[in-house]
Design a protein that fits this description.
It is a single chain. By secondary structure, the chain is an alpha/beta fold. The chain has five domains: 7-105, GIY-YIG endonuclease; 122-188, Orthogonal Bundle (Arc Repressor Mutant, subunit A); 206-389, 3-Layer(aba) Sandwich (Rossmann fold); 392-438 and 500-635, 3-Layer(aba) Sandwich (Rossmann fold); 645-726, Alpha-Beta Plaits. A seven-stranded parallel beta sheet has the order 12-13-11-14-15-10-16, with helices on both faces. The protein is globular and about 95 Å long. The structure holds adenosine-5'-diphosphate and zinc ion (2 copies).
């Protein structure tokens, strides 16, 4: 019988639109019957050899036979892209209008098998003593020393042995040749360490029990996603832990996503206490080698729980049972780079659909999208209305900063907050102070001509940092010295305005020298491990005040915090952004939730300029549903998400070409039936220049998916980069 000839459809790892399609290759005899979908292969491509992934087989040759090339070899024994992962990649490419090669990258182990960033398992040589009685030459003293060490230890790492005996590798090799020792390769796991804590399984409260029951009901039934809406401190994590324990009992795996890498150690410790070594962590702050080892451990099924930031949603668990997206409303769950700008919650939902796993979305302040879906019945809405152990939600006091100003207070601290901070002295109580700007002063303005110091590459104002006495651009890497005179009118009256976290710290240190402070923002956490060190200072009580940006609002659990202060809470409200109210409400509720989590009641002081804004008012009352009702009615009126889908098409490059590209795209959309009313723009983006590139954008509002149409966007000037952002978070 004649064997049917098959051709392999391969996606090559070359990140460019022009090559983002399936290329046919022939299958060499040595691979016949061995090659499977999801295999990683080495293929000739142009004049190079590149990595590729087998995504289909076909019996028909679609190119001329003389152009057909053959696969060179397999790069792994096993197909490393699981079938459901392949499906997920296809969905990502279609839904987010991106490159399939990029979508597949999410599914692959870190690093490459071939080319740049090559990684492998860490191999170490182990030496075992076989025969101590071999004859050595008289002058072989180093070898003798090695034998002595081996007589003591029996088995030892080659590197250690050579070092200890002050010997060379070649003399170790001669020992092996003589038959005295055996040298073998051993894979060493680059382990990710965590601090063990004691964490006994807790007896669930009534509300927690009911929540767990709903989760299990869905999991074993129709598998609707569960939206766990629980006030801060209601014990959501305990529910995750117990839901996961059941999944593990069935031999399946769980993925737990957290919004911030800094929260992984805390989670890791708690999960480690319950589930021991069968936990893993995946995020970008690990070294390439660490990530590589974790990936394979997960792929091989040696892990029961994966904890990580957004990209861990792609962890290659072979038998997934559950995904938890904790603090699902957080903006950090949106991928803001590359051609596939995914929303983690939606990817998780898709992955659960493809694998039969259950999804839990947890939050004290669910995103409007999720709550809306829950009210429509697409999600099972489960509520936790009380904190555990009858702890009250903290009282939130609003301080009107306009009145403070009228009364002669020109400082950044209101009377109430200043007094409350002073009250910490001599106690073990702690405070968290939130300021949502970093740097010292947020802009520099000439009092004579009104000139604002701007970045030469971006249309944004520069922030002065005291630490290096420089003006910084927070969007690109530009830094410059503060000039003595105004660059426009040469006046000497350049003045600094606006308060950033650096200034808050220095003011507090001056006013309250007895209270030690630490600061958590992207300036102080640049170095590896800095984040953990700062949180530890605070957790141990060595520091009494934690000052920080948004970072301090998320998920932290410190029982001694009795005071939370928020400086200018409504700054975010003035952003020209449809999500400004939602973000303000979430931030205030979340940061207030950090207070009063232990035995002592908490107090929250919020300084505002618009105390009557509904987002501020609802946050003060801990009133999520009140906020939701008002905000959703605005969204409905304006036909904004969740009633429509937003799509942002951003063009960037040289001024003229960029504008031309935006206009070309507009013409295309109109010609393909998109209504004029549903296109905002094209217009320069609010930040119309970034990193030296001009920016134009179109924002589409659509009730049905436009993804298919957007795959056909017309070609524009090659200097112009076009990004399609489905469900964008920011429109700046
Ligand atoms: P959330 O994530 O909802 O803000 P956490 O899960 O961090 O809340 O829980 C808040 C605190 O309550 C934690 O210190 C946790 O150990 C404790 N806790 C949770 N559930 C219980 C319970 N059933 N009994 C006693 N303490 C609990
Ligand atoms: Zn000037
Ligand atoms: Zn800049």
């Amino acid at each position: 019988m004649q064997r049917e000839v098959l051709y392999a459809g391969v996606i090559v790892d070359v990140r460019a639109e022009a090559v983002d399609r399936i290329f046919q290759y022939s299958i060499p005899d040595k691979l016949a019957g061995k090659l499977e979908l999801g295999h990683r292969v080495l293929v000739p491509f142009g004049h190079r050899r590149v990595e590729g992934y087998v995504v289909e087989f076909s019996g028909e040759l679609e190119i001329s036979a003389d152009r057909l090339k053959s696969i060179i070899r397999l790069l792994d024994e096993e197909p490393i892209i699981l079938p459901a992962q392949m499906e997920l990649a296809r969905w990502l490419r279609n839904h987010y209008v991106g490159l399939l090669s990029e979508a597949l990258q999410f599914m692959l182990p870190p690093g490459n098998r071939y080319g740049k960033e090559r990684v492998g398992f860490k191999q170490q040589q182990m030496v075992t003593l076989v025969n101590p009685d071999v004859e050595l030459r008289a002058n072989a003293t180093a070898q003798r020393r090695m034998l002595e060490i081996l007589l003591d230890k029996g088995r030892i790492l080659a590197s250690e042995l050579v070092k200890k005996a002050r010997a060379s590798y070649s003399s170790l090799e001669s020992l092996a040749k003589l038959g005295a020792v055996q040298i073998e390769d051993k894979v060493l796991e680059r382990k990710v360490a965590w601090e063990p804590v004691s964490d006994p399984t807790l007896v669930l409260t009534e509300e927690q029990t009911a929540a767990l029951r709903e989760i299990n009901k869905e999991r074993k039934g129709s598998r609707r996603p569960v939206l766990l809406h629980g006030v801060t401190g209601s014990g959501k994590t305990e529910i995750y832990l117990q839901a996961i324990a059941e999944v593990i009992k069935e031999g399946r795996q769980a993925i737990v996503l957290v919004p911030e890498i800094a929260l992984t150690p805390q989670m890791l410790s708690r999960f480690g206490a319950r589930f021991g070594d069968r936990i893993s962590v995946l995020h970008s702050a690990l070294s390439l080698g660490e990530r590589f080892d974790q990936w394979w451990k997960i792929y091989n099924g040696d892990v029961s729980v994966v904890i990580g930031a957004r990209s861990a949603v792609f962890a290659p668990t072979p038998n997934l049972g559950l995904i938890v997206v904790d603090e699902e409303h957080e903006g950090t769950y949106k991928q803001e780079q590359g051609s596939i700008r995914y929303v983690t919650r939606d990817v998780a939902e898709k992955r659960c659909e493809l694998t039969g796993a259950q999804l839990i979305l947890g939050s004290a302040t669910p995103s409007l999208e999720s709550y809306h879906r829950a009210l429509k019945g697409e999600y099972n809405l489960v509520q936790l209305t009380k904190r555990v152990e009858e702890r009250p939600l903290p009282a939130v006091e609003l301080v009107d900063m306009r009145r403070e100003f009228e009364e002669g207070n020109r400082t950044m601290l209101s009377g109430a907050l200043r007094e409350a901070i002073a009250g910490l002295a001599g106690t073990e109580n702690q405070a968290i102070i939130l300021i949502n700007r970093r740097g010292y002063s947020t802009f520099v303005l000439c009092r004579e001509c009104g000139h604002v110091m701007e970045c030469p590459n971006c249309s944004v104002s520069l922030t002065w940092h005291r630490s290096d006495n420089r003006l910084h651009c927070h969007y690109c890497l530009h830094r410059e010295v503060l000039p003595p005179n105004c660059p426009r009118c040469a006046s000497r009256y350049l003045r600094q305005f606006g308060v950033g976290s650096e200034q808050v710290q220095s003011v507090l240190n001056e006013e309250f020298p007895e209270l030690r402070t630490v600061r958590l923002d992207s300036d102080t956490t640049r170095r590896k491990g800095a984040h953990q060190r700062i949180l530890k200072e605070f957790a141990s009580g060595r520091a009494q005040i934690l000052i920080g940006t948004q970072m301090v609002a998320k998920g932290l659990d410190f029982p001694n915090v009795t005071l939370v202060g928020v400086l200018s809470a409504d700054l975010a409200l003035n952003f020209p952004d449809i999500r400004a109210s939602e973000r303000t409400f979430q931030l205030l509720t979340q940061v207030a939730g950090r207070s009063g989590r232990g035995d002592l009641p908490g107090r929250v002081i919020v300084q505002v300029y618009e105390p009557n804004h509904f987002a501020v008012q609802c946050a003060q009352r801990h009133d999520y549903t009140g906020f939701y009702r008002q905000e959703i009615s605005f969204r409905r009126k304006l036909n904004y998400p969740p009633f429509s889908q937003l799509i942002r098409i951003l063009c960037s490059g040289p001024a003229e070409e960029t504008k031309e590209a935006a206009l070309t795209i507009e013409r295309f959309l109109l010609s393909r039936g998109v209504s004029r009313d549903n296109i905002l723009g094209p217009a320069p983006a609010p930040i119309d220049r970034l990193k030296g590139r001009y920016r134009w954008q179109l924002v589409l509002k659509s009730e049905e998916s436009l993804s298919e149409l957007l795959h056909e966007l017309p070609a524009v000037d090659p200097e112009v980069r076009v990004i399609v952002d489905i469900d964008p978070l920011f429109l700046m």
